[in-house]
Amino acid sequence: MTADLVYLVAGGSLLLAIVLPALLDRWAISAPMVLVAVGIGLGFTSLPDGMPLDPQANRAAIEHVTELAVLVALMGVGLALDRPLSFRDRGSWRKWSSTWRLLGITMPLCIGAIALLAWGAGVAPAAALLLGAVLAPTDPVLASDVQVAGPQTGEDEEVDESDELRFALTSEAGLNDGLAFPFVYAAILLATEGAVHHWALEWVGFYLVGKIVLGVLAGIVVGRVLAYVAFRSASPSLRVAERGESLLALAALISAYGVAEVIGGYGFLAVFVCAMTFRSAERAHDYHAAMHQVAERLERLLTLFVLLVLGIALSRGLLASLDWRGVAIGLGLILVVRPVAGLVALSPMGPWESQLTGRQRWAAAFFGVRGVGSIYYLAYASGESAELGTDWLWSTVAFTIVASVLVHGALASPLMRLVDPGPDPDSELSRTAP
């Protein structure tokens, strides 16, 4: 019975993934909002009685499904970015200044603020730190309404991302999922090994530096190898770009993730770097758009499935342990912590000043969307320590995600039109919702 229900929910998610973007195009309602609401409604019926919804009992399944959703989203985000980044070109690094500020200032400030709020409210230090790490990253899955639409191709010269606001939010979402992992590991080490002085050097040397370097290297190597094979191989049968075989996007993300995990690096970071590296080869080739479409459609299906199940779980007791602390932390993050931390990071001062305008800075600071990545991090950490998988943490994270879906989903279209209306708002709004 359970398998039948999973197929039914998956089929419904696929149908909604096909029809919702066009139906909601002109409304301040996002597809995630609808899916969560539909899931909540289903939860009050007898239909999903056989579905495994308890996060404690089904932690491994939740971890793997959300992991796949984030991986596919990261591949799509990396392929969508048109702005090049070269390690040897200081000018290209400067063009990513908004991204570096959001990653280097906003995310640590959010992690620290949420951890302190939770600790001050009586949450154990390890769980408080984990909550900060889980909720700090902007989610690449649910943030598509405020991200770039996809790769520009078919040009005769190098293309570059012209929409600074969407580029900043997209590149931030692509990188911070991998860069949040060191802080998740810090919470795990605090819960399993005790006092900080027992593991501080290991954390800095391996989890903060070593695994990031290994993840980046894995992504670069896999991306370059696959790009060479797809575009420049001596064998015509291996030049899959000429045939438009877009399933290489899935092979690339699985390969990059697998290589990074085997050598001990961060797989999420490797997948994004692999996509960026592959995108840098034959930048104007139409093959990039074809690969992006595959990743985008699979991401949409996985995301809507996760949100539908999340909605069902909400009405089946997932929020039973939610208290005033969880509500205050969730709303505080969305309405105060992230916007303030974003404005601090994007303030017009210091080296490599952000290229965002005044209104764009406010929008970039506000749109810190929480989503599927937070569920994955919590499921992963709870598998390492029972202390990090309490019902209160699950309820708080679920509440924050739903609050983000409602607040950011309702405001994404009108605020993006207000900040940067562009020549054709309708065409901008027609970008695919998750």
From TrEMBL:
<feature type="transmembrane region" description="Helical">
    <location>
        <begin position="362"/>
        <end position="380"/>
    </location>
</feature>
<dbReference type="Pfam" id="PF00999">
    <property type="entry name" value="Na_H_Exchanger"/>
</dbReference>
<feature type="transmembrane region" description="Helical">
    <location>
        <begin position="6"/>
        <end position="24"/>
    </location>
</feature>
<feature type="transmembrane region" description="Helical">
    <location>
        <begin position="31"/>
        <end position="48"/>
    </location>
</feature>
<feature type="transmembrane region" description="Helical">
    <location>
        <begin position="392"/>
        <end position="411"/>
    </location>
</feature>
<feature type="transmembrane region" description="Helical">
    <location>
        <begin position="179"/>
        <end position="200"/>
    </location>
</feature>
<keyword id="KW-0472">Membrane</keyword>
<feature type="transmembrane region" description="Helical">
    <location>
        <begin position="212"/>
        <end position="231"/>
    </location>
</feature>
<feature type="transmembrane region" description="Helical">
    <location>
        <begin position="102"/>
        <end position="135"/>
    </location>
</feature>
<protein>
    <submittedName>
        <fullName>Cation:proton antiporter</fullName>
    </submittedName>
</protein>
<feature type="transmembrane region" description="Helical">
    <location>
        <begin position="328"/>
        <end position="350"/>
    </location>
</feature>
<keyword id="KW-0406">Ion transport</keyword>
<keyword id="KW-0812">Transmembrane</keyword>
<keyword id="KW-1133">Transmembrane helix</keyword>
<feature type="transmembrane region" description="Helical">
    <location>
        <begin position="60"/>
        <end position="81"/>
    </location>
</feature>
<feature type="transmembrane region" description="Helical">
    <location>
        <begin position="301"/>
        <end position="322"/>
    </location>
</feature>
<feature type="domain" description="Cation/H+ exchanger transmembrane">
    <location>
        <begin position="15"/>
        <end position="417"/>
    </location>
</feature>
<keyword id="KW-0813">Transport</keyword>
<dbReference type="InterPro" id="IPR006153">
    <property type="entry name" value="Cation/H_exchanger_TM"/>
</dbReference>
<keyword id="KW-0050">Antiport</keyword>
<feature type="transmembrane region" description="Helical">
    <location>
        <begin position="251"/>
        <end position="278"/>
    </location>
</feature>
